[in-house]
């Protein structure tokens, strides 16, 4: 009496194949590369270092200016602008206290955006590239001891900021401990650069010399920690 309703068949055809291709790990990774290259190219044209020469727009003052700077700071770090330059600019433009607050907020913001971009667009593809012993060991350390590993990376800077963000994104580390470790671990070096920037007009002052000395010592300490960690990872990782 009634014709049987035909069972639904799985969708096939060019549209399905296209959607699968667009959502594949390597397509998402390609999108990540395009986004980052576009951001870096934009920043090269914008030349953010001009802030140190021309100063902050005079119509932006007070807490609003510091908040806008923090947002810009986060975007610039995603575009691979070096954080030391931004930290010095924060100190020169806003002084030690407001500059430090803006720089730390921008640091956590930039790290979070980079982490999420790497996690959503690049993790699946990048994990297939972790074939070397050192990379595999680093992935294991971040996956098991993410908070203290990121904290050490921020306290003793030896790995570029963006590289650490995307390396953490490819691991199994979750976002909250990554952001907390980034915020806490970035305080000492960020403060040193901000203070140096705020005292740049007096390069012979004790405060400027102390900040500069801390920067040099932390860089040497970071190089030593990175060297020891590299050899430990290479020694502890089993042969293929």
Describe the structure.
- Helix 5 (83-127) runs parallel beside helix 8 and helix 5 packs antiparallel against helix 10.
- By secondary structure, the protein is mainly alpha-helical.
- The mean pLDDT is 76.
- The protein is built from 11 helices and no strands.
Key features?
single chain, 240 residues, mainly alpha, globular
Short description:
This protein is an all-alpha fold and 240 residues long.
Low-confidence stretches: none
Mean pLDDT score = 76
> Distance N terminus to C terminus?
67 Å
Structural class: mainly alpha
Number of helices: 11
SSE pattern, N- to C-terminal:
HHHHHHHHHHH
Q: In angstroms, what is the radius of gyration?
A: 22 Å
Indicate the topology.
Blueprint: H1 14-22, H2 25-46, H3 50-54, H4 62-78, H5 83-127, H6 133-144, H7 146-155, H8 161-170, H9 175-185, H10 187-198, H11 206-236
Helix pairs in contact: 2-5, 4-5, 5-8, 5-9, 5-10, 6-7, 6-11, 7-9, 10-11
């Amino acid at each position: 009496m009634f014709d049987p309703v035909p069972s639904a068949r799985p969708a096939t055809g060019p549209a399905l194949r296209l959607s699968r291709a667009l959502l594949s790990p390597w397509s998402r990774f390609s999108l990540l590369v395009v986004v980052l290259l576009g951001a870096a190219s934009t920043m090269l044209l914008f030349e953010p270092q001009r802030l140190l020469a021309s100063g902050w727009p005079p119509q932006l003052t007070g807490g609003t200016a510091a908040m806008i700077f923090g947002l810009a700071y986060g975007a610039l770090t995603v575009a691979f602008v070096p954080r030391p330059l931004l930290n010095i600019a924060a100190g020169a433009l806003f002084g030690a206290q407001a500059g430090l607050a803006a720089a730390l907020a921008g640091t956590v913001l930039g790290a979070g955006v980079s982490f999420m971009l790497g996690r959503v667009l690049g993790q699946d593809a990048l994990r297939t590239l972790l074939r070397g012993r050192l990379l595999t060991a680093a992935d294991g350390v971040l996956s098991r001891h993410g908070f203290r590993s990121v904290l050490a990376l921020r306290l003793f800077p030896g790995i570029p900021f963006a590289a650490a963000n995307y390396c953490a994104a490819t691991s199994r580390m979750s976002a909250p401990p990554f952001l907390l470790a980034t915020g806490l671990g970035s305080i000492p070096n960020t403060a040193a650069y901000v203070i140096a920037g705020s005292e740049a007009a007096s390069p012979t002052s004790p405060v400027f010399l102390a900040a500069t000395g801390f920067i040099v010592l932390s860089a040497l300490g970071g190089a030593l920690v990175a060297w020891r960690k590299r050899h430990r990872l290479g020694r502890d990782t089993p042969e293929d």
